[in-house]
Amino acid sequence: MISPRRHAERHRTDRIGWLRAAVLGANDGIVSTASLVVGVGAAGTGQAGLLVTGAAGLVAGAMSMAAGEYVSVHSQSDTEKADIARERSELATDFSAEQRELAALYLARGLEPGLAQRVAAQLMAHDALGAHSRDELGISDAVSARPVQAALASAASFAAGAGLPLSVTALAPASALMAWVGVTSLVFLAVLGALAARAGGAAPLIGAWRVTFWGALAMGITAGVGAMFGAIA
Q: Could you report the per-residue pLDDT of 57-74, keeping only the tens digit for each?
C-alpha cells in the first residue's frame, strides 16, 4: 500500500510567474535608464540634466511596466477563465464524453487503455474540472496568470533596476560620467543575468552573457543616436 505522506519538494516552476516579471522589470530598468542617460549625455547634456532625465525615465518606466504587465497578464487570465468556463459547461452537458476525452489524453501519454480509463474515472470523480483544467488545458496554480502580482513585481523591479544607473549618474565624476554609467550598468546586467539564470536552474554564465550583450547593444545604439543629434544641434 502506498503511503499518503508526501515529502516536501520545491520546484522552480512555482516561482515562474514573479521571476519572469521581476527579471524583465529589473533588466528593462537598467537598460532603458542607462541607455537614456548615455544617449542624452552623448548629445551634450550636463550632469544635472541627466539626473532629471533619468529620474523621469524611472517613474515613467515603472508605471509603464506595471500597466503593460497588468493588461498583458490579465488578458491571459481572461483566456484561462473563458476556457475553464467552457470546460465546466461541457462537463455539465456531456460528462461521459469528457471522461473519454481525458482517458484519450492519458492513453496518448503512454498508459494502457484500461488503466487510462480508470485513472480518468477516478480523477473526475474527485475533481472533474480540476483534472481537465490541468491535463487538457495546461492550467495549474503554479503557472496560472496573476495580473496584480505581475504588475507589482514589474514596477518594483524596474524601479530597483533603474535606480542603479541613476545612482551612478548622481555619484560619478562629471568628467567620466559616460564611462562610469556604461561600465557599471554592464556589470549590473551581468550580475542580474547570472542570478536570474541560477534561480531558474540555468547556467549563470550564459544568463550573464545574454543580458550583457543586449544591454551593450542598446546603450551603443542610443549613444550613437544622441551623438548624431548633438552634432546637428
A: 999 999 998 898 888 888
